[in-house]
Amino acid sequence: MQIAFDGVSKSFGSGARRVVAVNDVSFEAAGGTVFGILGPNGAGKTTMIRMLLDVFRPDSGRIHTDGVVNGNRELSFRQRVAYLPEERGLYQKRKISDVIHYIGALRGMDRDLIRTRMMPLLERFDLVDSLKKKVSTLSKGMSQKLQIILSVIHDPDMLIFDEPFSGLDPVNVRLVRELVREHRDRGKLVCLSTHMMAEVEALCDRVMMIDHGRRVLYGALDEVRRANTDFQASVNKDCDPTGLPCVVRVVKDVDLNHVYLKDGATINDLMRELAAAKRPVRRLVEGMRPIEDIFISVAGSAADGDATPPTKQADAVERSL
Amino acid sequence: MTGTIAKYEFLFTIKRPGYLILTFGLPVILGMYAGFISLISVATAGAMASGLSAQIGVVDKTGLIEAAEQAAEEAEATRRATEEAAATIGADPKSGKLKSQLDALEAMVREVIPDAQRYDSLKAGRVALEAGEIDGLVLVPEDYLQKRTLDYYTRTWQMFKGLSAPQQVRRQLYVGVLERAELTAEERAMIESRGKGEGLTETAYYELGLDGKFLKVDTLSRTVSFVLPAAVAGILIVALLINAGFLLAGVAEEKENKVFEVLFSMVRVDHLLMGKVLGLSAAALLQLLIWGAMILPLPFLTFLVIDQVVDFEWHATSLLLAALFFILGFLFYGSLFVGIGALGNNVKESQQYSTIIALLPVVPMVAFMSLLNSPNGIVARVLAWFPPTSAPAMMLRLATREVPLWDAAVAALLLIVGIWISVKIAARMLLVGGMMRGQSPNPLKMLRLLLNR
Question: CA–CA separation, B379 vs B19, rounded Å?
Answer without folding.
Answer: 35
